[in-house]
Design goal:
It is a single chain. With 278 residues, the chain is mostly helical. It has one domain. Helices cover 62% and strands 0% of the residues. The protein is built from 13 helices and no strands. Helix 2 packs parallel to helix 8, helix 5 crosses helix 6 and helix 5 crosses helix 8. The chain is globular.
Length: 278
């Protein structure tokens, strides 16, 4: 465990980039070999759009990184945050609690709020417009949303009182898990269901990308599935009923053109359907 802490305390940017690129490459190969759906789409064009948003997310996080570093340093120096107030415990338990807290505030909470506040939904909807969910979808976030999510990540660090090594560890795990649960891969149903008790499995997260409510407003988890089960936002749906996208933007010229995707947050909002019969 000490080796892990030491590594993530000073993880080079090149290694973080390798985790991102390596994860996409790995799951890209797997989903081509064991696909959940045989989707007929221009995969490289689709990937190009999502990779553009991946790059903008990296740029936003790089520019604002000093905020995370300052926040993590302040919490440890001033003994502030939940982790700082806990009694002494084994480092592995301390790490698990820290990761759970970061996942709750920096991932689940912001995701839930983005679906409930119209202004934030305007930016998050770009992620949901994807009608061909694969591993590249994981990083399909409007630059405006990248800023919003970053601020909630900083809030999570403040509340948790987590050191910077734990933040880097969480972010690295988050990248891999998000690529995994968005990937167009077919796991045995029993295995996927078993995994969903602990982590956000592919089938569990795919329900979140079904095109109509209430499914869109469910399964908000990022790494750990406990939050959806605890707060009553967990929903299941058979794989054969899945239709990807969001009902307000189902036309290709709306969901598959980069220029329009960048403009969506500033366009007139549209009302979504709300039915369990879709």
């Amino acid at each position: 465990m000490n080796e892990i802490i030491s590594y993530f305390s000073s993880i080079p940017s090149s290694h973080r980039s390798l985790i991102l690129v390596g994860g996409i490459t790995l799951f890209w190969v797997i989903e081509n070999t064991f696909p959940l759906f045989q989707m007929q789409y221009k995969k490289w064009h689709h990937a190009g759009i999502n990779i553009f948003f991946t790059i903008t997310t990296i740029i936003v996080n790089f520019i604002l990184a000093f905020i995370l570093i300052k926040t993590a340093s302040w919490t440890t120096e001033n003994n502030f945050g939940i982790l700082q107030w806990l009694p002494e415990m084994p480092i592995w338990l301390y790490t698990i609690i820290g990761l759970l807290l970061l996942d709750l505030v920096g991932a689940y909470l912001v995701h839930f709020i983005e679906h409930k506040i119209k202004f934030l939904w305007r930016f998050h909807i770009i992620h949901h417009t994807d009608t061909w969910i694969d591993t590249t979808t994981a990083n399909r976030h409007h630059p405006g949303e990248s800023v919003i999510r970053f601020l909630f990540t900083a809030l999570g660090v403040l509340i948790a009182g987590s050191p910077m090594w734990m933040v880097f560890l969480y972010q690295s795990l988050s990248v891999i898990f998000s690529q995994f649960n968005h990937a167009n891969i077919s796991l045995p149903d029993k295995l996927d269901f078993f995994l969903s008790y602990f982590i956000v499995s592919p089938n569990m997260h795919k329900v979140h990308h079904h095109y109509v409510l209430p499914y869109t407003d469910s399964n908000y988890g990022n790494i750990f599935s406990v939050w959806d089960r605890l707060f009553g936002t967990y929903i299941t749906l058979s794989k054969d009923k899945l239709v990807y996208g969001v009902d307000t933007h189902m036309l290709p010229e709306e969901n598959n053109q980069l220029k329009n995707l960048l403009q969506i947050p500033f366009q007139k909002s549209r009302s979504a359907k709300n039915t369990k019969n879709q």
